[in-house]
């Protein structure tokens, strides 16, 4: 395997909170995929700050992913086509949908993501690798 791209992002949760105040759930709906939306609602219902941290971490990870694949936020990369989910162990992973999933597969890529958050910030790091050719 070889590194195809690396992306990182730091997100100020206070900025995300201000956007939510102005735009309400429209921002979250635009940013989150269907599975992420369910987790966001659940976490926010338990504690507002947990929902905010979840939304911020997903926003940050998608920014990192878009940088690592070299597309930025242009087609086929869209907010909702890229979901950052968690395995039962808690390890985050990236699930792609539609044209983005097709493009990513055609390129022979695989992605690794990590997330971390503190009281006012989340940070994400994504490494995208080319898959090894078959022997």
TrEMBL record:
Gene3D superfamilies: 4'-phosphopantetheinyl transferase domain. GO terms for cellular component: cytoplasm. Residues 5-122 form the 4'-phosphopantetheinyl transferase domain. It comes from the Bacteria. Its cofactor is Mg(2+). Its EC number is 2.7.8.7. GO terms for biological process: fatty acid biosynthetic process. Mg(2+) binds at residues 9, 63. GO terms for molecular function: holo-[acyl-carrier-protein] synthase activity; magnesium ion binding. Coiled coil: none annotated. HAMAP family: AcpS. This is Holo-[acyl-carrier-protein] synthase. It comes from Ideonella aquatica.
């Amino acid at each position: 395997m070889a590194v195809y791209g690396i992306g990182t992002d730091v997100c100020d949760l206070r900025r995300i909170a201000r956007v939510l105040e102005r735009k309400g759930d429209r921002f979250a709906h635009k940013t989150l995929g269907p599975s992420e939306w369910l987790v966001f609602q659940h976490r926010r219902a338990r504690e507002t700050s947990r929902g905010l941290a979840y939304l911020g971490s997903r926003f940050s990870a998608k920014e990192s992913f878009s940088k690592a694949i070299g597309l930025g936020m242009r087609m086929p990369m869209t907010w909702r086509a890229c979901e950052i989910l968690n395995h039962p162990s808690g390890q985050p992973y990236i699930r792609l949908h539609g044209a983005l999933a097709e493009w990513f597969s055609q390129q022979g890529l695989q992605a690794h993501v990590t997330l971390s958050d503190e009281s006012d910030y989340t940070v994400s790091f994504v490494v995208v690798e080319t898959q090894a050719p078959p022997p």
